[in-house]
Structure formats: structure tokens, C-alpha cells
């Protein structure tokens, strides 16, 4: 249990802001949650996160008991790109769910990571999402960071929140994209027609996607794109590209069910991440190699440019 007594020069600031400067390992969101749960009290009483602290106030922070994680570790083969005592970076295969959910409690990335890391995972994600800092769709392959401790989790979450983590994807879309590069800035929210889908909507949250053409394949009516995102809305890349008329091939949700390449899931791969290491502050740049199915499609597309006598 920790206690703080407010000094005169500290008065008249929000309690959540004050504690965020004192408790570096707690994010402001975590502090707000613990205030709501009455784990943080002022003079023995519950206050709102917006409460302005006063000289002489006694703030008590109750220790938070670690939650037991009732998710079993499973020995599932997964490619590890980088690992140290703070983080583990993996290449998630297409078809694997990131964390357990109702009706899908095993076979996930979390199950695999728990077998690798044992008890060394951040608990901030909750009982079913230990260590998970960010996600990618089930049928999107590629690079993903997992935090091994709460300090690393908070640091990485702040980087993502401040758009300091640079995410680069590669995708094959239907159609010949005319622009060499462009930015899509369209708000995304839950579809009013189908609650399982996302859509571009005026009431949605800001979403920004940048893309650049790598190569066009006129014979096959496809374009290979390099994509960077500033925001991380659910299905953002898939929704944005479909909205401008270039759906990702294999995407059964946002491409009107067409699947001329007969692949399961979209041809979208999280290729690289650039971020600051949460402990050393060193700039990290890591890449995840293309999965076999993606490379097979590219090889077939490249046949278009092979000179035949």
C-alpha cells in the first residue's frame, strides 16, 4: 500500500494527472480504472478521476492482486523474430486468433506465447489477453509484439497511442491502382447494416491509411501495395481499400465474396514494425518474412513479366 500527502505546490491538479507523474509504471488509463474500482482513495473516500487534489489530502493506493489466468499454455509452433526479458516479437500465421474469446479458448497466439514465456507476461491485458499490446486480424499474418511485464506493456501502449510505432503492411488488391501513392482519411465505425462488419461512416473514429504502389499486374488485374497506418481501427486497411474500389484479394467480408485466387482469408501481411525498446529506448526495426501462400501468389503474378521466347 502506498500513501501520498499533498503539498501546497502540488494542489489544484487532477488526481489522475498527479498520480501519473508519481507512479511511472501506471498509465493514466490504469489509474482512472483503479480510482473507479475504489483502489485509490482520498482521505479514505472514493473520488472521481477529475477531482482536484488539495493541500493536506492523503491519497492511498491499494495494492492490486494479480489475476489468475485461466488459459492453458499450448505447445504451438510459432516463429519468434526477437526475444529478450521485456518483449517477444513473433510472426503470427494466417488463421490464428490473437487471444481467446467465447467459443475459442485455445489454439490462439496467447496459448502459444504462454507455453514459451511461462509466467513472464504482462497482466495488463486481463485474464484472456496477457501481454497483448496490439492485435492483427485472424486471417492477417505478420509481426506482433507481446509484452513480458507491465512496465514494457505501458511503455509500448503509450507509443502506440502517440503514433510512435510505425506499422508497415503489404497487400495484394483487386484492380489496377492508378495513383503511385495516396492517403485515405475516412472515419471507421461499426456498420449499421451488419454489426459484424466495420464501415466508413460519419459517426466513426478517425482512420488514416497511407499506401504506395509496389507493382501493378495488368494481366491479372492486381496491384501489390505497401501500406502504413497512423491509426489502428478494426479492419482499417481492409475497409479503406474496399471503400476506394480496391478490395484485398481473398477478403470474403469486404470484397463481395469473390475469391479468384482460392485462398482462405485476405492477402494482407504485417511486414514490419519500428518502435523504441521499452527498457533501453533503442530504436528497433523488425521484419516478418512473407508466408508461403503470399509468396506463391506473388510468384504466379511475376510470371506475367517473364520473357517467353
What's the quick description here?
It is built from six helices and 14 strands.
Describe this structure as you would to a colleague.
By secondary structure, the chain is an alpha+beta fold. The strands form three sheets. Strands 4, 5, 6, 7, 8, 11, 12, 13 and 14 form a nine-stranded mixed β-sheet that branches. The chain folds into three domains: 2-61, Roll (Structural Genomics Hypothetical 15.5 Kd Protein In mrcA-pckA Intergenic Region, Chain A); 67-162, Pseudouridine synthase, CATH 3.30.2350.10; 163-309, Pseudouridine synthase, CATH 3.30.2350.10. The longest helix has 12 residues, at 150-161. The chain has helices at residues 15-22, 28-36, 109-117, 150-161, 236-243, 292-302, and strands spanning 2-5, 40-42, 58-61, 79-83, 87-92, 141-147, 166-174, 181-185, 188-190, 198-200, 208-217, 222-229, 268-276, 283-287. Strand 9 and strand 10 form a beta hairpin.
Helicity range:
10-25%
Low-pLDDT residue intervals, each spanning 5 or more residues? none
Strand percentage: 25-35%
Summarize the helix and strand pattern as letters.
EHHEEEEHEHEEEEEEHEEH
Number of helices in the DSSP assignment: 6
Name of the CATH class of the largest domain:
Alpha Beta
What is the CATH architecture descriptor of the largest domain?
2-Layer Sandwich
* Main beta-sheet strand count, sense and barrel state: 9 strands, mixed
* Shape descriptor: elongated
Instruction: State mean pLDDT (0 to 100 scale).
Output: 88
Give the C-alpha Rg.
Answer: 23 Å
- By DSSP, the count of extended strands is 14
Give the full name of the CATH homologous superfamily of the largest domain.
Pseudouridine synthase
Amino acid at each position: 500500500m502506498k500513501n501520498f500527502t499533498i503539498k501546497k505546490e502540488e494542489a489544484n491538479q487532477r488526481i489522475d494527472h498527479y498520480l501519473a507523474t508519481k507512479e511511472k509504471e501506471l498509465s493514466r488509463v490504469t489509474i482512472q480504472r483503479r480510482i473507479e474500482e475504489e483502489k485509490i482513495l482520498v482521505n479514505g473516500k472514493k473520488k472521481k478521476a477529475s477531482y482536484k487534489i488539495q493541500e493536506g489530502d492523503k491519497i492511498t493506493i491499494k495494492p492490486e492482486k494479480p489475476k489468475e489466468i485461466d488459459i492453458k499454455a499450448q505447445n504451438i509452433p510459432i516463429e519468434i523474430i526477437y526475444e529478450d526479458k521485456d518483449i517477444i516479437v513473433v510472426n503470427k500465421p494466417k488463421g490464428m486468433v490473437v487471444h481467446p474469446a467465447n467459443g475459442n479458448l485455445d489454439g490462439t497466439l496467447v496459448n502459444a506465447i504462454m507455453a514459451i514465456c511461462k509466467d513472464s507476461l504482462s497482466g495488463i491485458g486481463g485474464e484472456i489477453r496477457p501481454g497483448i499490446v496490439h492485435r492483427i486480424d485472424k486471417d492477417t499474418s505478420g509481426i506482433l509484439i507481446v509484452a513480458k511485464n507491465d512496465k514494457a506493456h505501458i511503455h509500448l501502449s503509450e507509443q502506440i497511442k502517440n503514433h510512435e510505432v510505425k506499422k508497415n503492411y503489404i497487400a495484394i488488391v483487386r484492380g489496377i491502382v492508378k495513383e503511385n501513392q495516396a492517403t485515405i482519411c475516412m472515419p471507421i465505425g461499426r456498420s449499421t447494416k451488419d454489426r459484424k462488419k466495420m464501415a466508413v461512416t460519419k459517426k466513426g473514429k478517425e482512420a488514416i491509411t497511407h499506401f504506395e504502389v509496389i507493382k501493378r499486374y495488368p494481366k491479372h488485374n492486381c496491384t501489390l501495395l505497401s501500406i502504413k497506418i497512423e491509426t489502428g481501427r478494426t479492419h482499417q486497411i481492409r475497409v479503406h481499400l474496399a471503400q476506394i474500389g480496391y478490395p484485398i484479394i481473398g477478403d470474403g467480408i469486404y470484397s463481395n465474396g469473390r475469391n479468384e485466387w482460392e485462398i482462405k482469408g485476405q492477402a494482407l501481411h504485417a511486414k514490419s514494425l519500428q518502435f523504441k525498446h521499452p527498457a533501453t529506448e533503442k530504436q528497433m526495426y523488425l521484419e516478418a518474412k512473407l508466408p508461403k501462400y503470399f509468396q506463391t501468389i506473388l510468384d504466379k503474378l511475376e510470371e506475367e513479366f517473364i520473357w517467353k521466347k
